[in-house]
Amino acid sequence: MFICSNVLFEYAQQVKNLGNTLLELLSEALGLKPSHLADIECNQAQVLLCHYYPPCPQPELAIGTSRHSDGGFLTILLQDEIGGLQIFKEERWVDVTPTPGAFIVNIGDLLQLISNDGFRSVEHRVLAKNVAPRVSIANFFGTHIDPTSTRIYSPIKELLSDKKLPLYRETLASDYIKHYYSIGLDAKTAISHYQL
Question: Which residue range or ranges hold the Fe2OG dioxygenase domain (predicted)?
């Protein structure tokens, strides 16, 4: 157990470094200074979840994880070669083919909110089509994970103008996540609650 925990902590640190680099690149893509998303605490918490899906003898009768988008800012996912992850694109489900050694990066709802739709969160699900066990490791980034957070998020002022009005109302980070979990995994219902 001790050996495994050391590896897990090292992995989490390396993925945190990757997340920080991605947030810098996303800041620049929005036309902001590289530290902008970090400065507004989009990377203040990291939650690592390991998923294990046992073999499913009747996959047509089950779903691994239902349709949803992630509530935070950014998710970095490592999946094994089994597959089963799908994204919803252009009104249909598309398989995300596993690539050995590659990460899948999902934009979360709160990044969609603060970027004023500059980035869009991705609806996804996992099918239980595996004949062998499926394992994935998801790293979720954001200050919203802390239920005591008093951080307020709204569309970033530098992204707004007379021609680009805010699309979302401001929210306390902890209120957003409470709402997100209160409705459960259900498409993109949580963020639609905050649309103006």
Answer: 44-144
- pLDDT tens-digit series, residues 105-158: 999 999 999 999 999 999 998 887 767 788 888 999 976 566 677 888 999 999
Q: Which residues pair with 51 in a beta bridge?
A: 136
Q: How far apart are CA 29 and CA 138, in angstroms?
A: 24
Q: What is the number of domains present in the chain?
A: 1
Helical spans, DSSP H, in 76-161: 109-114
What are the tokens at 59?
A: 């996959």
* Torsion angle defined by CA atoms of residues 111, 115, 118 and 122, in that order, rounded to the nearest 10 degrees: 20
Q: Which domain holds residue 87?
A: 43-192
Average pLDDT for 58-84? 83
Count Cβ atoms within 10 A of the Cβ of residue 146 and give its class: 0-12 exposed, 13-18 middle, 19 or more buried.
Answer: middle
Q: Hey, what are 48's tokens?
A: 């690592």
The verdict on residue 11 lying in a domain is no
Checking DSSP bridges between strand 124-127 and strand 63-68, what pairing results, if any?
antiparallel
Residue 136 identity (one-letter amino acid): S
Range scoring the smallest mean pLDDT among 27-31, 64-68, 99-103: 64-68
CATH of the domain at 143: 2.60.120.330
Query: What's the CA gap between 196 and 179, in Å, rounded?
Result: 17
